[in-house]
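Continuing the batch. This is chain 6 of the set; chains 1 through 5 are on the previous pages. Same settings as before, nothing changed between runs. Recording input and output for traceability.
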Amino acid sequence: MENALEGMARLNAEGRYLYANAAYARMCGVPDPLDGRCWEEFVHPFDRAEMSNVYLTMRSDGRSEGECRGQRPDGTVYYKRFRRQEDAGTFEGRFDGHYCFASDVTDRRGFELQMRQQMQALTEYSLQLETKSAELADANRMLESLAQNDGLTGVPNHRTMQDRLRGEFARCQRGAHPLSFLLLDIDHFKAYNDAHGHPEGDEVLRMVAALLTSEARTSDVVARYGGEEFAVILPDTDLDSALAIAERFRQVIESHAWTLRPITTSIGVACTTTYGANPGALIEAADKALYQAKRGGRNQVFAASADGKAA
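Output for chain 6:
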């Protein structure tokens, strides 16, 4: 026992040391024998009440084990792992004392604490990384939205409209469904800007986009074509239906309660049933029809006919 690496001690029924080997004495920080000293002297004051309960458990169950803080005479605090076992000399219910086996686990506890701190730091870093990733995803979505949508009106921009038109054109061709396309121009918009200023003109553009979006079907695509022009893609829509939709757009915009002066629009309509060679031909036909609507007095809807004239 004296040469064992583990601390070993024997205590009497009152909890005083009868014997402690060198390893136990070194752990307790006492160079002299512990004979006659009470175990409570070497337990941290904060842990003495708990260890008293452990002592009582050992007396009733015959053994106990656990960890506690020890305190050396010089004030040094350490952690020790212990197991207590009732002395085999106990006879007919008489408690004659117990053996205690203990090891200094301060380094292990420090390592565990360090590991917990590192795990906590890692968890916090992971949370920060998740937050940054979410922020980056939001930023990417915002950038994607800015790349796809018009910054002033919020509707798809010219490039996005071209992409959507090509996609819808191919889809409608595969299914042999008609596809219609509208070009809408705000009448006398330059004069409005000159008279009321560009900020007021921007408000008109935003409102026109909002009115078109509110009246459009879920399958339709409202986009800003450029300047004061808007485009609307009408999937699975023949020419007659497209004319009816365009007329509804025109009336909604005209009847809106504009604050400075009435706003009207001219609209050109084209359908793949007549101009189905490619998306460019559809846009060109709608543009020609829009020109006819403006030349014919504005605030009206014209459709591109098969002979290349507007009707």
